[in-house]
Sequence to fold (328 residues):
Amino acid sequence: MATFKAWVIDRVADGQRLAFRDFDEADLMDGSVTVRITHSTLNYKDGLALTGRAPIVRRFPMIPGIDFAGIVETSQHPDYAPGQPVLLTGWGVGETHLGAYAEKARVPGDWLVPLPEGLSPEHAMAIGTAGFTAMLALMALEHHGLRPEAGPAVVTGASGGVGSIAVALLARAGWHVVAATGRPGEAAYLRGLGAAEILDRTELSGSAKPLAKERWAAGIDAVGSTTLANLLAMTRADGAIAACGLAQGMDLPASVAPSILRGVSLLGINSVTTPIAKRRAAWARLARDLDAGPLAAMTTRVGLAEVGNLAEAILAGEIRGRVVVEMA
Fold:
């Protein structure tokens, strides 16, 4: 069996060790489809895994990377044939199953999604888990019955991966978007994505009151903790916040007052084990509704060998938008 290049995390006495090295194809895990990966991406969770800052990796050795796009090499699954372009996000890849920062992967075919018409592998990874999560959040808000005429929509962590795509998707859908960010220098970038207002994140970082002045009807939150508590306290009656991240923390120092006095709902977004029908529907909408222009504006490209150098930067909030990892 051949070897291929991969980032590999090994367990060591004082934690974990990350190395870019050859990996034997014979050591890939079980799965019905082998994929030649052409593109991956960098998410906040990937930064946590690469650095060991949080216990993301639960099997060693581990190839990190939670998203990939590529071409089927071999398949024992009825839905996939050699030469077919596919993508994958979630399902524990890069955590419990060998992941995407490699030139090959072997996975269960039920985890894959056929590459939607109109999307290249590069564009699919410019979207990645971040964009997929943002679309799931938008779909959840719509399922709740919220529409642009209800009032503004707020997005936290707006200059990050989830936030950038959330701003673009909400604006395309007709919402008046309030983009909350701690990086005032990104105001022009966010307005270019469709934000109508820029909000300094410090307005959301203090201790939350049980209730505050109503400011928005909906929101997509990638931050958690005190920020999410403030969002809920400032949400209009019968509004909702879709929560999908924890960059500030996993705690939620909030009151039940918004829920029982204003009917505000907290909608949880899980992008890891999304059922396949909903997964395909979200990707179909992303292919249709996300403009190529804003997507290009928020995307940078790096080679596979460079990924390890970017982990600290994404955790520090220093990376704007999306990063596409090219295997060749």
User: Anything to note?
Assistant: The first helix runs from residue 44 to 51. The mean pLDDT is 96. The chain is about 25% helix and 25% strand. Residues 193 and 294 are 6 Å apart (CA to CA).
